[in-house]
Amino acid sequence: MKAQEPPEQTGWQGDADPESVARKILLDQLSIKARSRHELEERLARRNVPGEVAGPLLDRFEEVGLVDDEAFARGWVEARQRTRGLARTALSVELRRKGIDDETVKTVLAEVDPGDEADNARTLVRKKLRSMRGLDEQTATRRLVGMLGRKGYPPGLAFAVVRDELGSSAEWAGDE
Length: 176
Hints:
By secondary structure, the protein is mostly helical. It has helices at about 20-30, 35-45, 50-65, 70-85, 90-95, 100-110, 115-130, 135-150, 155-170, 170-175.
C-alpha cells in the first residue's frame, strides 16, 4: 500500500499570491499530461493551496476546457486498452480511482465496442500462448482465463476466447 505523501514544500507559503501559485501548479501539471479534476485537487492540497482558492480556479479551468473529466476518461480508456488490453470492468475501477464520477464512467465505457473487447482478449491470449508451450490444456486454460480475469474480462468471454484460441492452436488442437 502506498504511503501518504507529505505536503510538498514548494506550494503556497503564505506570503505569495495563492491564486498565482495554484494557477502555476495547475498549468505545470497539465503541461505534463492530462489529469482529472480530482487529481488536480489532490495536487493543490498537497501543495498547501487553500480550498477556497483551488475550487474556483479549477472551475475556471473547466470552463475554458483545460480540465475536462470526460475527455480525460476517453483518453485514459483508449490508452489503457491499447497498451494493457484492459476490459471495461478494470477500466471502470481505474477511472473511479482517478475521481471520475459514475455517470461519466458509464458514458465513456458505453462507447467501448464489445467486439473490440473480444479482439483485445484474443490478442492477449495469443501473446501469452507463445510462452505456454509444453503445458497441458487444463493448466493453460486456467492460466489464460486467470490472466483475462485480472484484466477485467468477464468469465464467459474469457472462457470462450481461451477455448477458441486453444482449439485453433496446433499444439492443443489434438489434446481433447
